[in-house]
Amino acid sequence: MKAILLAGGKGTRLRPLTLHTPKPIVPIFDRPFLQYQIDLLRQVPEIDEIVLSLNYQPRRIEEVFGSGGDLGVHIRYVVEPQPLGTGGAIKFAAGHYSGEPLVVFNGDVLTAVDLPAVLALHRERQAAATIVLTPVENPTAYGLVETDADGNVRAFLEKPTPDQIRCNTINAGIYVLEPDTLGRIPSDVAYSIERGYFPSLVENGETFVAYVYDGYWLDIGTPEKYRQAHIDIMDGRFPAPPFQAAPGTALVSPEARIEDGATVEAPCFIGAGAVVRTGARIGPYSVIGSSCHIGENAVVDGAILWPNTWVDAGAEIGPALTGRHCHIGRQARVAGGTLLGDKSVLTDYSSI
Asked: I need a labelling partner for 285 at 20 to 30 A (CA). Which of 117, 152, 181, 331 fits?
């Protein structure tokens, strides 16, 4: 059985962080994001190949995961010749595959869905396709997917008006598809699975069922949601490494150095090779990447610092995001919500 991870997006909502780091490998603590999806796919022993469908900086992603051997999986890479949309990318990645159902994931979804249960429903209903749906509090902000009492998908509502809202379930970006249904997708052109393939199943009366999942689900594609993913893992709302066994704690790598007189407040994460100097304070929900340096009396309060960032003495950083190899000068101030791309420099006593 094959799984396809749609990981070709440019991550424009996360810029400038994604200018040099494709969204599938942005770090969540010390792990590339896509590794969490691979962990989920490993729940299904039948999946013997994971296909990464790429378009943006594919070599960077392949350098991180290689053949997948270190993760206990087999990974194959396909690179779209041009952006093909979700449907076109699935068809291109599937190639001439036939037989067992295809499992498909959007490449920006963090979830703990019971994937074996989704497959079991697909097989029990002998479905042409199965879609995972998740309920949301504000249905007006999303395209909705409407089902009947038996769980059959009946309609897709793109940005519905208030009088059109009859449900609160949205597409969670996880599908099980029968390979013989992909013939309706045209080859080598941009084609949307949401606007083309799925509506065709409904119009043709084919068995198209929904698995409604009301557990943890998050699209990490914005700075706010990216930071929320870290908070949820630290708090245990999404049980996952590295906090799976110790939510709510301060996780400090044994290879980090915390000097006497520094303050580390839980929950937080301090990576390998990081140095926190005397008098510095690491506040709750801070993430200090590997080989970062936090100077004397500096304050990091809820920020996420990617590896090799240097924070000089007396600097203060609120809930901001910084890329790799940034330099925050002495007594500088970085307000919450700030995004700094790789190699950004904030000179001494500056504020941003």
From this structure: 331
**Mean pLDDT of successive 10-residue stretches along the chain, which has 352 residues:** 86 86 89 91 89 86 85 88 86 83 89 93 94 84 80 80 75 91 86 87 91 91 93 94 93 96 96 97 97 97 97 97 96 94 96 94
Question: What does the chain come to in residues?
Answer: 352
**pLDDT at 160 (0 to 100):** 65
In contact, 176 and 118? CB cutoff 8 Å? yes
Q: CA separation (Å) from 127 to 114, 123, 184, 191, 269?
A: 18, 7, 16, 22, 44
Sorted by sequence, the CB contacts under 8 Å of residue 70 that are 6+ apart come out as none
* Two structure tokens written together for 254: 């044994």
Q: How far apart are the first and last CA of the chain?
A: 50
Q: Tell me what pLDDT residue 249 has.
A: 96
CA dist 292 and 270 (Å) reads: 9
